[in-house]
């Protein structure tokens, strides 16, 4: 998308607002598919938690994607968006057996990540096709918060517990159709990913009726100009060759599954906010916007960097600004960042705002959540309206005897 398109969206729908470029999502989906074109059976399951707007799910459904879900609510969103149950993969963590049973009744693929639930579920439903999440004990990911395959992670069944796992499967006569891993997000070294894949291949040999291997995702995208990213093409070349060889060794053609979230939608997303005030102090120039970490928390939560551009004055002289929000606590998006000269009323654009941005928004300070717009075929389509005061009150219940005194 170009600056003029983004400014058009801000003018038409107001700010703050999230904007998603449908063409970029399509190109990323095609790029991943092409990288693994040597694999006969490839399935891409979009990770709903990255961006769960129903219109985005429907867009990806039309591309042929399945879904990776982590909650019963995400499963319900997928069904609402028109996905067939068998195209939805459910990988919860720490949920009750009751939730898993409820999801199972919906007909989706169950993925279990702990021995206790595995044994309970297998005892009650031995005929149900189940996938098992393995923890390969491989450290990968941009930081500790998004690295989920290491030895201290709460996710998955330790690969060192494989004998115990196999004993449960044998005792319950469970129907194990797949095994799964996810090492973390923002993976740079594909050799680490390939190393973890070998652990999954070794674990797969313990199960004789597999239909697929799920390698998760976590591919890094560039956050700024000339930033490094996961070499998808190189990974595709090396992993496809190894996967095809393993299928021959296993004696059966399996399906290779990935669960990209950030890779598909991060670069497609833009967050637009208006500058409320430019504040000069003795040491800093603050650009205060009509937003805060209630709308975009990643810089404060993860220390993540989002490129910020003044699309109202893209060719202006660059100056140093600290971009801050309107929340009653420190909510600094950027410190001393070089940005084209900012004036009150200008629109700032945060790039890479497609993944884990709106989906982590809140009503902190009783602020409204922003609108979402899908840019498709040269036109902006509203896919979520700005919240209103009625939305804030919707699920609150007043005590009758107190209402009478107001």
TrEMBL record:
> Domain Orn/DAP/Arg decarboxylase 2 C-terminal spans what residues?
18-354
| Record has Lyase as a keyword | yes
GO molecular function terms listed in the Swiss-Prot or TrEMBL record: diaminopimelate decarboxylase activity; pyridoxal phosphate binding
User: SUPFAM superfamilies given for it?
Assistant: Alanine racemase C-terminal domain-like, PLP-binding barrel
Active-site residues are 328 (proton donor)
Q: Which PROSITE patterns match?
A: ODR_DC_2_1 (PS00878)
Q: Where are the transmembrane segments?
A: none
Residue numbers binding pyridoxal 5'-phosphate: 218, 356
**Catalytic activity as recorded in UniProt:** meso-2,6-diaminopimelate + H(+) = L-lysine + CO2
Per UniProt, where does substrate bind? 298, 302, 329, 356
Provide the cofactor list for this protein: pyridoxal 5'-phosphate
| NCBIfam families the record matches | lysA
Q: How does it assemble?
A: Homodimer.
Quote the HAMAP family the UniProt record gives.
LysA
Similarity section: Belongs to the Orn/Lys/Arg decarboxylase class-II family. LysA subfamily.
Cited function: Specifically catalyzes the decarboxylation of meso-diaminopimelate (meso-DAP) to L-lysine.
Protein name in UniProt: Diaminopimelate decarboxylase
């Amino acid at each position: 998308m170009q600056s003029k398109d983004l400014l058009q969206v801000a003018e038409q729908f107001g700010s703050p607002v999230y904007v998603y470029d449908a063409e970029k999502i399509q190109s990323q989906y095609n790029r991943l598919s092409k990288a693994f074109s040597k694999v006969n059976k490839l399935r891409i399951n979009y990770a709903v938690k990255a961006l769960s707007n129903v219109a985005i799910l429907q867009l990806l459904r039309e591309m042929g994607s399945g879904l990776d879900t982590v909650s019963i609510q995400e499963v319900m969103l997928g069904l609402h968006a028109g996905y067939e149950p068998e195209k939805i993969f459910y990988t919860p963590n720490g949920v009750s057996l009751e939730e898993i049973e409820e999801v199972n009744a919906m007909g989706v693929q169950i993925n279990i990540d702990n021995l206790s639930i595995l044994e309970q579920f297998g005892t009650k439903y031995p005929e149900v096709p189940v996938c098992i999440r393995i923890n390969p004990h491989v450290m990968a990911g941009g930081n500790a918060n998004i690295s989920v395959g290491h030895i201290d992670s709460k996710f998955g069944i330790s690969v060192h517990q494989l004998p115990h796992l196999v004993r449960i499967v044998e005792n319950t006569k469970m129907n194990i159709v797949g095994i799964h891993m996810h090492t973390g997000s923002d993976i740079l070294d594909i050799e680490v990913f390939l190393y973890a894949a070998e652990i999954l291949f070794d674990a797969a040999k313990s199960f004789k009726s597999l239909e697929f291997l799920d390698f998760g995702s976590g591919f890094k995208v560039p956050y700024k100009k000339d930033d490094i990213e996961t070499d998808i093409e190189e990974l595709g070349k090396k992993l496809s060759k190894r996967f095809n060889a393993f299928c021959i060794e296993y004696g059966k053609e399996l399906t290779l599954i990935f669960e990209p979230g950030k890779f598909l939608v991060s670069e497609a997303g833009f967050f637009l906010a208006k500058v409320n005030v430019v504040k000069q102090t003795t040491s800093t120039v603050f650009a205060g916007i009509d937003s805060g970490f209630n709308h975009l928390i990643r810089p404060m939560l993860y220390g993540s960097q989002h490129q910020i551009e003044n699309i109202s004055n893209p060719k202006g002289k660059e100056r140093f600004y600290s971009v801050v929000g309107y929340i009653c606590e420190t909510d600094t998006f950027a410190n001393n960042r070089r940005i084209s000269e900012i004036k009150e009323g200008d629109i700032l654009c945060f790039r890479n705002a497609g993944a884990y941005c709106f989906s982590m928004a809140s009503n902190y300070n009783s602020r409204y959540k922003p609108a979402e717009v899908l840019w498709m075929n040269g036109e902006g389509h509203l896919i979520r309206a700005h919240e209103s005061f009625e939305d804030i009150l919707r699920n609150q219940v007043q005590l009758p005897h107190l209402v009478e005194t107001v």
